[in-house]
Amino acid sequence: MAETLDPTKKLCPHCQKEISKGAKKCPECQSDLRSWFNRHPILTGIGVLFILGSAIGAVSDSSSSTTTSQGASESQEEVWTQVTSLKGKGNQNSESFEVTSKKVRITATTTGSSVGSYSSVSLEKEDGGYSGPGLSIMTEGSEAGKGQTTYRSLKPGRYFIQVISGVNWQVTVEQTN
């Protein structure tokens, strides 16, 4: 006659001894009875982030490839128009200016250090919100620094340039037609 288990008990999958249903570790053989995901929370978290990043990237890639194929069919070269140009030294925010295009290019140069420098230039939306990562320029010694970045998928509106620098800088902002 087969022995029936107490409803509050289960068999350890490793040593087949009767243990409590809620046990996380077998008291007999010391086997960890938690699921793989519970035993490895850091790897589980990394895996979840990787899957989410891949899913978001796939959605993002499909929308950008649509834009690219439309742009290619028009076979029209982009024309850049200067929106503003400014120069200064040290940390500074520019006056606000109007952006009417979805695509803006920022070109920056830095000079004036004998030991090297680090400067950051970013396009900021006047009413807040995220525009995207900025431009970083790092130099060694007395060399001049130069950098360029393009912001895509901007919403038209008022923007300003934020410069964080300890040296002389010049920034030009352009947009496509």
Summarize the model shown.
This protein has 177 residues and is an alpha+beta fold. Helices cover 21% and strands 39% of the residues. It folds into two domains: 40-74; 80-176, Jelly Rolls (Sandwich), CATH 2.60.120.380.
Question: Describe it for me?
Answer:
- The chain is α+β, with helices and mostly antiparallel strands.
- It folds into two domains: 40-74; 80-176, Jelly Rolls (Sandwich).
- Helices cover 21% and strands 39% of the residues.
- It is built from two helices and eleven strands, in the order ββααβββββββββ.
- Strands 4, 5, 7, 8 and 10 form a five-stranded antiparallel beta sheet that branches. Strands 3-11-6-9 form a four-stranded antiparallel beta sheet, with no helix packed on it. Strands 1-2 form a two-stranded antiparallel ribbon.
- Strand 1 and strand 2 (18-20) form a beta hairpin.
- It is elongated, with a radius of gyration of 29 Å.
- It starts with 8 loop residues before the first strand and ends with a strand.
Quick tags:
about 180 residues; alpha+beta; Jelly Rolls; 2 domains; elongated
